[in-house]
Amino acid sequence: MAAAAFVLSTSLLAQDRPQSLRGATPITETSKVDQYQRGPDQGPIPRDYVQQPPLIPHKIDGYRIDLNFNKCMDCHAWSKAKEAGATKVSLTHFRDQASGAELANISPSRYFCNQCHVPQVDAKPLVGNDFKPVDALAQPGRK
Ligand code: HEC
Ligand code: HEC
Known about the structure:
Elements: H1 2-16, H2 73-76, H3 78-84
This protein binds heme C (HEC) (2 copies).
Residues 51, 53-54, 70, 72-73, 76, 87, 89-90, 92-93, 106, 110-113, 115-117 line the site of one heme C.
């Protein structure tokens, strides 16, 4: 009886649990997240809330970020943004998270841009959500 109840409750749990984008693909294999189609490059996508890392409105295929080089900063650094027509990286990205000190270069905790910024794809939301920003802080154009 106890065993039956356990089986029942775990199967219910499995049903309720949202699936991650990589689904059941083990970490040792490349996931098929790429199956999601990216639309053409467009203007910035309105943010849903003020603290949201803006979605990337352009392709990032082959943009390398490693110890020596950060392709994103080629256009988003303050010194390059104007020429590239890109948005400058946020001022908050130069702040040391622990001490709050302003740094001379991008904070190590902001170096790997794709930890927070992702290109938009046409993917169904994993879970339902009816969040709405307060009117005063809503970005124009947001659905
Ligand atoms: C070749 C230049 C170039 C490179 C390299 C580049 N970007 Fe961009 N990015 C742009 C431009 C130009 C825009 C602005 C598009 C517009 O305003 O229509 C932009 C916009 C963005 C935005 C949207 C900003 C907003 O306010 O909504 C984000 C986020 C972003 N890029 C992140 C990245 C990340 C992360 C990388 C590296 C993986 C990267 N970009 C690499 C040129 C570049
Ligand atoms: C730890 C998460 C995180 C990382 C890593 C990160 N960002 Fe951001 N980014 C954010 C958030 C959150 C915002 C919006 C709030 C803000 O400005 O801090 C933002 C804002 C931006 C903006 C818009 C600035 C504006 O004035 O509207 C750009 C462009 C951007 N980031 C580019 C980058 C690039 C390029 C990198 C890598 C060098 C990067 N970010 C790394 C979280 C992150």
